[in-house]
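Q: I'm writing up a methods section and want to include an example of the input and output format. Could you take the sequence below and give the corresponding predicted structure tokens, formatted cleanly so I can copy it straight into the document?
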Amino acid sequence: MNLASRPFAPLVWLALALAAATAAFAQKAPIRFVVPYPAGGAADQITRLVAQEISAALGAPIVIDNKGGAAGMIAGDIVARAQPDGKTFFVGSNAPLVINQALYAKMPYDPEKAFVPVAGMGKSPLLLVARPTLGAGSLAALIALGTKEPGKLTMGSAGSGNITHLAGEYACRLMGLQVTHVPFTGSASAIGSLLGGNVDIMYDALPSSMQQVKAGKIVALAILDDERFPQLPDVPTLNEAGFAGAQASAWFGLVAPAKTPAAAVIELNQAINVALKKPELLEKLRNIGAQPLPGSPQAFGKFVADERAKWLPLARSLGVKAD
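A: Here is the clean output for your methods example:
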């Protein structure tokens, strides 16, 4: 007998429709990625590229929520206090998960206990750039200029405690340069100030500076990596100039509030790792100067722990404090 001809068929179809609607609603519940920096910087660009690739696989829209300020700790505190329901994640990076422990006497959250690792997304080596009007077209010229008038050079950064701050201080000291640090609320505003001639130099992640270098608006002097970057083949490494040990990269990955269900962590980790193997996403990351950072939650957790072991003693030895 045809189901539609039976008296109770409308009730059956109504129940099925309600079930389908409920399932669709559940699938579309948004997932929130809280980014600790304003739009336009490396963290924002990498997060948006990854989010675009994994949203369909997760069956849910991903909301990018930029909450800059306090060296990433405003965003970190929001996520640390969020419900551990698998719907809110923190785009963790060098400062809010590592370096701030050395710069601040007290943090609003414990970066080692407040979160569980989920997945790495991407990283980018830092680039030393200068404003064209500075008159330093090479690393040697910058060193000559800086040593002639110690302390006169101004160094912009994406914020106190950011890797662009700490690595910049360390690299400058290796080169014998005394600089005045000028912190901004993210790479985009710092690069804007550099373009405007308000600061002299900056150590920046490639996604927020490479296109400006290619356009001739700022000058690239050195890259803080073991090898030259393929898309900037004429830019030497600091190692080549004789300053070993200054390798540094900005990195970004997701962590979740402590006690987030393991199933939610694994689901997101798997979606990200699948996405990071796609040629289309890899090409997009390369085009902005980033490299994929794949691996299990445990692997990302170890990566962050290794960064702590490297940078915390260095930050303390340099005496760098939040401005």
